[in-house]
Amino acid sequence: xxxxxxxxxxxxxxxxxxxxxxxxxxxxxxxxxxxxxxxxxxxxxxxxxxxxxxxxxxxxxxxxxxxxxxxxxxxxxxxxxxxxxxxxxxxxxxxxxxxxxxxxxxxxxxxxxxxxxxxxxxxxxxxxxxxxxxxxxxxxxxxxxxxxxxxxxxxxxxxxxxxxxxxxxxxxxxxxxxxxxxxxxxxxxxxxxxxxxxxxxxxxxxxxxxxxxxxxxxxxxxxxxxxxxxxxxxxxxxxxxxxxxxxxxxxxxxxxxxxxxxxxxxxxxxxxxxxxxxxxxxxxxxxxxxxxxxxxxxxxxxxxxxxxxxxxxxxxxxxxxx
Length: 322
Hints:
322 residues; 2 domains; 8-stranded parallel beta barrel; 8 strands; 11% strand
């Protein structure tokens, strides 16, 4: 890090509200994003049209609440229901609204390698800080196929890239050994591991090295994931309680187990109940109840069922949101 960056970090820590400083700055390593990275929803009107004014308000809220980075158009952002033009426009607008205050990570994964390269190239041109690339879904590649897929994207587009392993959605599990091979590529800088398997933290750290970012993709186990050596969480829960997720992550990164658990206890019910139906159905319903977004969601996703609403409502009440 340059002397200027060191002086800037020290000045911000001493003179500004520490809760408003992104964790990746406080950490002293501006090359690694740490803390609470929100997997931001894409707000939609009831007719399904993307609501960009609402998106602007959501972005501003997250910046003010201390969210450490925004993941735009990932799973929670309904990447699978947006067409390419909408996908790119949501990323572009998110970058515009953030205005450099926190990092923006663009979801650019696809089950076609050519499409993933195209979307990643678009994100770089729009000014994204990094890209998040999910393992190819449905076609179930081998471990060698996964390696060659991500290697092709990394070699085609010079932007920091984060792997995304979520076998519950993709029917494809990237093994730690494959991630370790990919970590040798300069611009593959991290992985979002959404299996909830905490034994993978040590395996990934050993195979990928200390400079490789490890992000939990499972809110329920994120606290322990970070305490075991992870760098943060790409979070659904952070859509509802950004400040508390940020503080929980900071405490865990500082190794303060008791403080991290105290922050996490108050929102643990959200970690569970936001997945009573397929994400992002519950979180979009909850945000609509809070008045943060309209109720829009696109087929084949449907509004939260009547039977599930009391479960999410109760979790929100336990978290003090209602």
